From TrEMBL, chain A:
PROSITE patterns, sorted: HELICASE_ATP_BIND_1, HELICASE_CTER
Annotated ranges, domain Helicase C-terminal: 261-409
Origin: domain of life: Bacteria
Matches recorded under PANTHER family: ATP-DEPENDENT HELICASE LHR-RELATED-RELATED (PTHR47962), LARGE ATP-DEPENDENT HELICASE-RELATED PROTEIN (PTHR47962:SF3)
Keywords: ATP-binding, DNA damage, DNA repair, DNA-binding, Helicase, Hydrolase, Isomerase, Nucleotide-binding
Coiled coil regions in record: none
Family assignment from sequence similarity: Belongs to the Lhr helicase family. Lhr-Core subfamily.
Protein's name in the database: ATP-dependent helicase Lhr and Lhr-like helicase
Every Helicase ATP-binding domain range: 47-207
Origin species: Acidiphilium rubrum
One GO molecular-function entry: helicase activity
From TrEMBL, chain B:
Gene Ontology molecular function: hydrolase activity
Descriptive protein name: Putative phosphoesterase
The Calcineurin-like phosphoesterase domain, residue ranges: 27-132
Residue ranges of the TM segments: none
Top-level taxon: Bacteria
Length: 836, 222
């Protein structure tokens, strides 16, 4: 195995940066000079590396001319040799970013009069242009991972990519480690087989695991023939805390009480992005700002559920400098250059240092000026988290998950895709797949199981011989059996599985009105006609549903419901959690905190204990006829939720009669009918054995995860807008498939893929395991007479959390039924059931 | 498991949380829409869903046959997902079904999915009629039917919960589907509402019991 460049020491290359072997051609240096720019060392370093035939990872902060660095080698090569062929492929995680980069490249190409044709290809590209691009490719094609996959799974792919020389991968930190990244890695391995000479240039913001990223980018998946180039660091950002006057709330995550203070900050800057964590929070914050906005400063709203045209309008207004502020979610985290932004305000906890730095980078796309940022904590714990994040940014303490093995459902899609392009030999394809870093350690038997799954479903009960999708010829090559299979496959490419959504339409009759955006179907099922809800910054009345649209009108009254969104909340990162924990234990660090927060912590130290850096503080106390147990684990909400399920199972067995639990990013709270005693045994590591297995199998989370796996692996078809009605009758509910499969074929490859997903993402198993190991023999149990100051916030969360699942659902139904019976509605029916 | 009694046409019927009706005085078990071999039907169209649905459905049926020991079993149509379904049965499943038929008298009503298999279109017993899809009724009749796979969505404090359900009024009992891989139609959909112009009740299925709600209480579907 080739030696890996160490993630800590700069590569040999970045040290040679000052003595470039490569010089810019005249045409290019003149162009730089004419614009008053100096070419940056890392731009030359990338050029150097590519000229010498190496793959290159450029890590540089925003504003460092990263994109131009990625394209310079191609522009120079094409300026000399403009023969028509596909020379460079650019891949971005966002369609909008590809479009924006195309626009930005037009300028140098036009100004230097380069004979280069550059085009984008995404899901939005019209069919006739896509057809033309296939017969007559541009020199530089800008696309997304999904559109690349579609191109690669065509029979013509081998010819199409023959002359490919450069592959530019933008913002790869946003892709590597996700299922989209797994698919892209597999596609790169395929491209390597088709065009072995093509070099990869990866562009990334600062990342935690540089070595892993070099592996990911390299053609052998192990870091070979790949160099690291580090851009110079930008000016350190200036980050402050913005504490709204008045009482610091005990709980809540919206930060609305700070609206007036935020508005004052908006006044002091030319252009501010107000980042929030969820779309619901964006809607509320936008409304709160406008409530105070007497001078009607132009403030807009931007989030991923808004209609694309509305979002484009906001972006255009930002670029033109017509706005003073935008309230945004992660929809503005990536990419596009907004030169005018000079202030970023993060409302509510930043959740991770890397994420915060990405957001800070949105202000001042210029390397030499410090970006200006303010953090606005929404509650007391968030004061600690914000302070910890500021420290973390100063220490460049980046977080990010270590690499995980590639997903098997994505591999299944890839295998069928390859078969659609050309017959493959399993031995060759296995070798190729192993050159993609996420699959470098893939066992041959797992690969074979995936191929068998694609072939005939891979069930223990082999009854589908006659429905096989692939057949094997005498030389061992696998072919697709029908053209129909290819057609079905093309409709289902991609690794993004969206929750079902409905369009929100405002006013107008049939076909009229405007589309404001999309909301999740399950939110709509909670509304009745006449209900008020906030969406797209408007107060709307829900009128009803017509086909796949929600019909709404302006002018709702009364308490609004806010669209809730799946997966809107990020868990606290491990690094940040550790900093918060350390901070709690160091009273010297509290002096920057508001008085109320400091007094709160001092009171906790006096009445109970402060959680230490290495121990696990567990408090138990009686309250309102119940016993509460609060564990200060600091492992993030997802991990706490899983832990809560496991602990309640255990309490049940110990006879403590647990009644419920609540999980926040910081703590887990459980309440019981009887006092829990044996705290050390409660937290023993063996709970990760059978208890975990039993819980995971039943959990709705696993079912949701299975649905995604089943769609990506092609077991069931995607639902396409419009086609839903007819499809619903033939489609089979994946929850039912999951239950049946688990019972009759528990080791099936799709169940294995589902469990792997859950362990890595949904449940944060590694964090639970680490915490339990750390806590062994170090549990500080405080048995208190009443609630401790630090426990108050989690008790306030009780009732807001929704706990769902088989048994919880039955309890909720029973409660709803009993309510109706109490009210005397349909009492004959209800009572007959109770007598049964 | 607790079945809920309802009284129609002077008889008592038990709504079982497994989604079947037991008629004690006739020792008759009524069930609808088994959709056996639905998975292999999908497989023929290119979706290789797990081939265990027939086995899972027969497992559940075996439990009920043991529990109620009925003399008669009335299957209200769509017992197979398509007309060729019977031919695709695995040998083991076919033998099991034959054992059931030897021990109980099965009445197979024809449904729209398995019309060509030659089942009766309807069965009458005093005031009770049994058919696949509900029709206009004569005065005093009580009809048991399937076809729609009804499911209801009930608003609770923590969001809406959707479950397969029975739908009834004084004249009709609409059964949920019994098949392992069958989806559902919301009771708020027009075809179901049209059958219950004066309202009715829904009984949502769960592991241990059924939950009763007024039909009007079922939330508007998306």
């Amino acid at each position: 195995m080739p030696a890996l460049p160490s993630p800590t020491a700069p590569s040999r290359y970045s040290q040679e940066v000052n003595k470039p072997k490569t010089f810019l051609p005249r045409r290019f240096s003149d162009w730089f000079a004419a614009r008053g720019w100096a070419v940056r060392p890392h731009q030359i370093a990338v050029l150097d590396s590519v000229t010498q035939g190496d793959n290159t990872l450029l890590i540089a902060p925003t504003g460092g001319g990263k994109t131009l660095a990625g394209f310079l080698p191609s522009l120079i090569a094409l300026a000399d040799d403009p023969r028509p062929r596909l020379h460079t492929l650019y891949i971005s995680p966002l369609k909008a970013l590809a479009t924006d980069i195309a626009r930005n490249l037009e300028a140098p190409i036009a100004e230097m009069a380069l004979p280069i044709r550059i085009e984008t290809r995404t899901g939005d590209t019209p069919a006739n242009r896509r057809a033309r691009q296939r017969s007559d490719p541009p020199h530089i094609l800008l696309t997304t991972p999904e559109s690349l996959a579609l191109l690669l799974y065509q029979p013509e792919a081998a010819d199409y990519f023959t002359d490919l020389a450069v592959i530019v991968l933008d913002e790869i930190h946003a892709l590597a480690g996700t299922k989209r990244g797994d698919q892209l890695a597999l596609c790169l391995a395929r491209l390597h087989a088709l065009a072995p000479a093509a070099l990869r240039i990866g562009l990334s913001a600062t990342i935690a695991h540089q070595g892993a990223m070099l592996n990911w980018l390299s053609p052998d998946g192990r870091g070979g023939a790949t160099r690291l180039v580090l851009g110079e660091a930008g000016a350190a950002p200036e980050i402050g805390l913005l504490i709204a006057p008045g009482r610091m709330p005990w709980s809540g995550h919206m930060g609305l009480m700070a609206a007036e203070a935020i508005l004052q900050q908006i006044r002091t800057a030319r252009m501010t992005i107000v980042f929030v964590n969820t779309r619901a929070q964006a809607e509320l914050m936008f409304e709160a700002l406008w409530r105070h906005n007497d001078e009607t400063l132009p403030i807009a709203l931007h989030h991923g559920s808004l209609d694309v045209s509305q979002r484009r309008k906001v972006e255009a207004a930002m670029a033109a400098g017509r706005l003073r502020a935008v309230v945004a979610t992660s929809s503005l985290d990536l990419g596009i250059d907004w030169a005018a932004v000079d202030q970023v305000i993060q409302v509510a906890a930043p959740k991770g240092v890397s994420r915060l730095m990405q957001r800070l980078g949105r202000a001042n796309h210029r390397l030499d000026e410090a970006s200006r940022a303010l953090l606005v904590p929404a509650n007391r714990f968030e004061v600690l988290e914000c302070a910890a994040a500021i420290e973390g940014v100063a220490a460049l303490d980046l977080d990010g998950d270590p690499p995980r093995p590639g997903a098997l459902d994505v591999l299944a899609q890839h295998v069928l895709g390859c078969a659609c392009a050309a017959p493959f030999h399993p031995d060759e394809l296995y070798a190729e797949v192993c050159r993609a870093a996420p699959y470098a350690m893939l066992a041959r038997h797992d690969f074979d199981d995936v191929v068998r799954y694609v072939e005939d479903g891979g069930y223990a009960l082999a009854v589908y011989e006659r429905y096989r999708k692939l057949f094997r010829d005498s030389e061992g090559f696998m072919h697709v059996r029908h053209a129909r299979i290819v057609r079905q496959f093309r409709m289902n490419i991609g690794t993004i599985v969206e929750a079902p959504v409905l369009k929100v339409r405002l006013g107008g009759g049939r076909g009229g009105g405007i589309t404001l955006g999309e909301i999740e179907e399950y939110f709509v099922t909670m509304m009745s006609p006449g209900d008020t809800f906030l969406f797209a910054g408007r107060r709307l009345v829900f009128l009803g549903i017509r086909e796949t649209s929600v019909m709404a009108a302006d002018g709702g009254t009364g308490e609004p419901k806010i669209p809730a969104y799946v997966g809107g909340r990020m868990p606290l990162s491990t690094n940040l959690a550790n900093r918060v924990r350390a901070m709690l234990h160091e009273p010297a660090q509290w002096r920057h905190f508001p008085d109320q927060v400091r007094e709160w912590l001092e009171l906790q130290a006096w009445r109970s204990s402060l959680p230490g850096p290495d121990d696990l503080l567990v408090e138990t106390f009686p309250r309102g006829g119940r016993w509460y147990l609060v564990a200060y684990c600091f492992e993030g909400r997802q991990a706490h939720q899983a832990l809560g399920m496991l602990i309640t199972r255990r309490l049940e067995r110990f006879g403590d009669q647990p009644l419920g639990f609540v999980a926040t990013d910081y703590v887990l709270g459980v309440w019981c009918a009887r006092e829990p005693h044996d705290i050390a045994r409660l937290f023993e590591e063996d709970m990760l054995g059978d208890d975990l297995e039993a819980w995971m199998a039943e959990s709705t989370m696993l079912k949701r995860s299975f649905r995604n796996v089943a769609v990506i692996a092609g077991l069931i078809e995607r639902t396409h807008p419009g086609g839903e009605r007819s499809r619903r009758q033939v489609s089979i509910n994946t929850d039912l498939i999951y239950d049946v499969l688990r019972k009759h074929d528990p080791t099936h490859i799709l169940l294995r893929a589902t469990r792997a997903d859950a362990a890595h993402g949904l449940v944060d198993l590694a964090r639970i395991a680490g915490m339990l190991a750390r806590a062994r023999g170090r549990i500080t149990h405080r048995r208190l007479k009443r609630v401790s100051p630090l426990a108050v916030p989690v008790l306030l969360e009780i009732g807001r959390e929704q706990i769902r699942g088989g048994e919880a659902e039955d309890a909720l139904l029973a409660e709803a039924e009993a309510l109706l019976a109490e009210a005397g509605i349909e009492d004959d029916v209800a009572s007959s059931v109770h007598l049964a | 498991m607790n079945a809920a009694p309802i009284h129609r046409a002077g008889h008592r019927f038990m709504l079982d949380p497994a989604g079947v009706v037991f008629w004690p005085v006739r020792r008759t078990l009524i069930l609808a829409d088994l959709h056996l071999e639905k998975a292999s039907s999908s497989a023929a169209r290119g979706a290789l869903v797990p081939p265990y649905d027939t086995r899972a459905t027969l497992d559940r049926l075996a439990l009920l046959l043991r529990g109620y020991a009925p003399e008669v079993v009335i299957a209200l149509g769509d017992s197979f997902h398509d007309d060729q379904g019977h031919a695709r049965l695995a040998a083991e499943d076919a033998a099991r079904l034959a054992r059931f038929e030897a021990a109980h008298r099965f009445v197979w009503i024809a449904g729209n999915h398995d019309q060509a298999m030659g089942g009766a279109t309807m069965l009458r017993d005093e005031a009770c009629v049994f058919r696949h899809q509900a029709e206009a009724l004569e005065a005093g009749q009580v009809e048991f039917s399937g076809h729609f796979h009804p499911k209801a969505r009930i608003a609770t404090r923590a969001g809406a919960i959707a479950r397969p359900c029975f739908v009834t009024d004084q004249h009709r009992v609409l059964l949920p589907s019994f098949g392992a891989f069958t989806g559902g139609l919301e009771v708020t959909a027009a075809p179901i509402r049209a059958l219950f112009p004066r309202g009715g009740q829904v009984f949502l299925l769960s592991r241990e019991r059924v939950f009763a709600f007024p039909l009007a209480h079922a939330a508007k579907a998306a």
